[in-house]
Design brief:
Strand content: 35-45%
Helix content: 10-25%
Structural class: mainly beta
Largest sheet: 6 strands, antiparallel
Strand order of the largest sheet: 1-2-3-4-6-5
Shape: globular
Distance between the termini: 69 Å
Number of helices: 12
Number of strands: 56
Length: about 900
């Protein structure tokens, strides 16, 4: 950008508005960029810098590296230059908020609030450190907090390039100091070599101050403070802040270690540990009781991974219901990644424990791969499109499910030798399968067509696919059959559409008699099960959040198949869908590392509405189009938020310890409706548009979701996943006259603009076993003769969100996949009792990098806001879980 003459009210090409502050790094002004029509911040750098061309060039290079981060927790630098008055300036993102120093003037912060700040700060540091950037002068003055609670780090990577006039800092030359007294690391204080771990020390000093209200190192002079940094430990948090949870104290201690080698190997690990604590301690921040022997053991080895410490505290703190037995004392567990492509899932361990089979789309084709557990080598085994591998008991072959590219029917079961060769088709119309312990039979799932839809069938056939017979059927979805070691039972995972209603179904392999195991309340998505060696218990991983699509920590649960007794035996930082185990009891799980953000699409123009590492999804426009309501975990809890469509102002609408999600407005814009777990299970709630005066209006008792209001605002239509009354319901806005209008296994209702019809998702098409969009009349539930198939060519764990009506009510927009298997929004005309499939057309949101999984349509029909879901899938091991290590069914070679 060309510079302009500097005047009394201009700095380079920018018009100065007012001074924001001044310090050793220079004066800071609020300014206006007339070319791009935005307010920015301008920093006038020290005069000696402008005269030093080499130093200014070095500064530009540092700033260029920092600005390339484009991270939501790091202030973006736009330009560095000199104006015609030879003043050096730096133009950067303007942050409307206050510095962390200003925020800390009120003294110690509540633990929850401190964690919200610390997690964001650590996340920004981790992103920078990954790119080789070190701050060198991290302190509360260099951290901004926006009015929305977003943390922004200032001056990243610039300390070594800018000579500072403070008494606190000096330029980073050999043998000199760089940083600020009280936040320098010991190696900085000694003028030694510094790296990212020095930032970790400064971070620890800041976190200590957030939690105590006092500085960790604060001498009467700068020299005395430096001596304290090098020589002394700060007062113990257990004494000055006993309310701080022990795992959080350990994080601070680790960051403040004098030896850099005792700090974190990677700042990303620091960020993750803080996220674990944030997600598993209540708003009160009360310390969790920890067994003394565990506490002593951890203090004896301070460098143990803090995640293990968190496991102990979290499990000790777990709130379990009456039927969940308190677990035995726990040992330390550990976690590690087994694969790193970001596209690996559905693990299966060979009987001898030497091989790991899994599905992966790492090369653009979803196929089965083999990995040597010891050596680490990985090789593709099949051609694709393949998923759900399972080894035969002799370990010589792998069975897997191959998708039909045309999706005219469910997939087929194939078998291939581990050493390679020509695969052989075993069975048609199979969704998932497993081999019996003696290798003579296959248990598999497939849809069973019935009038008006399909049921889920569990079948058994010979190992060659012959003599298939139906063992049992269910009116809910079934996946991942697993034989018990004694061959007498088969366990499958069942789901009614809501992720909180998943459970294990136990089937007698001889008689087909079924028993559904009770599911822990207020839990989310569950994995496939594994059996204990005595065939008496199943073990599975269950997400602790209903919003499992965004990734969630999870419990490892052991459940007795006869008594239903349930025990939480472990904890893991991730949930997953497919679980298996090594011979030594090490669990192997496919886990997710996702984020979900909103972007608006209008014709060929796209812009981000939200951007960061949170999960912002389920957008719903206000009737006047001035705001978008959405669910987000950005606060560390699942709540409702609103963002203005013109200026991007974000406001938190709900603030409750329970999970709030799937929101919508009433047509007059005065009320909002959503699904909340405040009563102990998900129910429908209504409140004023600002979140006040919240009231529960449904009384489903199990799982009520997806509320949507009629045009007159008199009725709220929603979906029940209660087995006794599943389907579409309507209830008056005051909670009266609950009426069952569609009695079927449905989900995701959406009322038409005129209030006459409700579009909803039906689980199965009898031909393809894929979902359908159907339409019913709201008044009486009469089917309107509309059937729109939802095409899914490739596996996706992105939950395809609710259907939307176009504003004129003449067409229905829905999520599906295009011919390349990419998620996006389609639209199709709506005419009762008419096949309008010829009018099906893409509307937008097709992105190879981000799976569109929910969306909203502006009232004028011109703008589409989509939740773009980015997720990495990896195979993950969980070692040392009590109740698993000693009792897991041993696989024999």
């Amino acid at each position: 950008m060309a510079t302009a003459a500097a005047t009394a009210d201009s700095i380079g090409p920018y018009r100065a508005i007012r001074q924001l502050g001044a310090g050793g790094m220079g004066e800071v002004f609020l300014a206006h960029d007339s070319e791009l029509g935005r307010n920015i911040a301008i920093k006038l750098l020290p005069p000696d810098l402008a005269a030093d061309g080499e130093q200014l060039t070095r500064l530009r290079n540092e700033a260029r590296n920092a600005s390339a981060l484009n991270h939501p927790n790091i202030v973006t630098i736009y330009e560095i230059g000199r104006d015609d008055s030879a003043r050096a300036f730096m133009a950067m993102e303007y942050v409307d908020g206050q510095t962390l120093r200003e925020l800390m003037r009120g003294g110690a912060m509540p633990v929850r609030k401190a964690l919200q700040i610390a997690v964001q700060l650590a996340d920004g540091l981790a992103a920078a450190h990954k790119r080789g950037l070190v701050h060198r002068d991290l302190k509360p003055e260099n951290v901004m907090i926006t009015s929305d609670g977003v943390v922004k780090v200032l001056d990243f990577g610039l300390a070594k390039s800018v000579a500072v006039n403070d008494n606190d800092t000096n330029v980073s030359e050999p043998g000199t100091l760089v940083g600020t007294y009280g936040y320098m690391s010991p190696e900085q204080a000694r003028a030694g070599e510094i790296d990212y771990r020095s930032d970790q020390f400064a971070f620890g000093s800041i976190l200590y101050e957030l939690l105590t209200g006092t500085r960790a190192f604060d001498g009467t002079s700068g020299v005395e403070t430096l001596f304290m940094v090098v020589r002394d430990e700060p007062p113990a948090l257990s004494i000055v802040a006993p309310h701080v949870p022990a795992p959080l104290r350990w994080i601070v201690d680790r960051c403040l270690s004098k030896d850099p080698d005792d700090r974190y190997v990677a700042t990303r690990d620091l960020a993750r540990d803080l996220q674990y604590i944030r997600d598993h301690f209540s708003e009160t921040g009360v310390a969790t009781p920890i067994r003394e022997k565990d506490s002593l053991a951890i203090r004896a080895k301070k460098s143990w991974p803090i995640a293990a410490a968190v496991v102990i505290a979290v499990i000790a703190a777990a709130s379990v219901t009456a039927y969940v037995r308190q677990p035995e004392p726990r040992s330390i567990t550990s976690e590690r990644y087994l694969t790193y492509s970001g596209n690996d899932y559905s693990p299966a361990v060979s009987p001898d424990g030497k091989l790991l089979a899994f599905a992966s789309s790492r090369d653009g084709v979803q196929r089965i791969w083999l990995k040597q557990v010891a050596g680490g080598g990985e090789v593709a085994l099949t051609e694709g499109i393949d998923d759900f591998p399972r080894f035969t008991p002799d370990g010589a072959s792998v069975l897997y499910v191959r998708a039909d590219p045309e999706r005219r029917r469910p997939g087929s079961l194939w078998r291939v030798a581990v050493v390679g060769g020509e695969p052989r088709r075993v069975l048609d119309e199979v969704t998932t399968a497993d081999v019996s312990p003696d290798g003579t039979e296959i248990a598999f799932t497939r849809p069973v067509p019935v009038k008006g839809g399909a049921l889920a069938g569990i079948f058994v056939a010979g190992i060659d696919g012959a003599n298939a017979r139906e063992l049992a059927r269910s009116d809910v979805g079934t996946l991942h059959p697993r034989w018990s070691p004694d061959g007498k039972s088969i366990a499958v995972v069942i789901t009614r559409g809501g992720r909180v209603t998943q459970a294990a179904l136990i089937i007698d392999a001889a008689t087909g008699k079924t028993k559904e195991l009770a599911a822990p309340p207020k839990a989310g998505e569950m994995s496939s099960v594994i059996w204990t060696a005595d065939s008496k218990n199943v073990i599975y991983v269950r997400a602790q959040s209903v919003e499992a699509v965004v990734g969630s920590s999870a419990h490892v649960i052991r459940q007795n198949v006869k008594t239903d007794e349930t025990e939480i035996v472990g904890w893991t930082s991730h949930n997953g869908l497919v679980l298996d185990a090594m011979r030594d009891g090490t669990l192997v799980l496919d886990v997710r590392s996702p984020r979900d953000n909103l972007r608006a699409i209008s014709g060929a123009t796209e812009r981000w509405i939200t951007r960061g590492n949170s999960s912002d999804r389920q957008p719903s426009y206000a009737p006047d189009g001035k705001a978008v309501l959405f669910s987000s975990n950005r606060s560390g809890n699942l709540d409702l938020w609103s963002i203005a469509t013109d200026g991007g102002t974000v406001r938190r609408i709900t603030d409750d310890g329970a999970e709030d999600w799937d929101p919508g407005f009433t047509p007059d814009g005065k009320k909002i409706v959503w699904s909340s777990g405040r009563s102990g299970n998900l129910e429908i709630w209504i409140a004023n548009a600002d979140g006040s005066d919240a009231k529960q209006i449904s009384h489903d008792g199990v799982d009520a979701e997806n509320p949507t209001a009629t045009a007159d605002g008199q009725w709220i239509v929603y979906c029940s996943f209660n087995p006794a009354k599943s389907g579409i319901w309507k209830v008056r806005a005051d909670g009266t006259q609950a009426t069952h209008i569609v009695k079927a296994r449905t989900s995701l209702p959406e009322v038409s603009p005129d209030g006459q019809y409700v579009a909803y998702r039906l689980a199965f098409d009898t031909r393809t076993a894929q979902p359908l969009v159907r339409v019913a009349r709201v008044s009486d539930g009469k089917d309107m003769g509309v059937s729109i198939p939802i095409r899914l060519l490739r596996r996706t764990s992105a939950i395809l969100g609710r259907t939307r009506w176009m504003p004129d009510g003449k067409a229905i927009a829905f999520l599906a996949q295009n011919e390349e298997g990419i998620n996006g929004v389609f639209v199709q005309d709506f005419v009762p009792n008419t096949d309008t499939s010829a009018t099906r057309r893409p509307l937008g949101g097709f992105d190879r990098e981000r799976a569109t999984e929910s969306f909203g349509i502006a009232p004028d029909g011109k703008t589409l806001t989509v939740a773009g879901w980015e997720q990495l899938f990896s195979l993950f091991s969980i070692e040392g879980v009590p109740g698993v290590t000693k009792n897991i069914a041993r696989k024999e070679s």
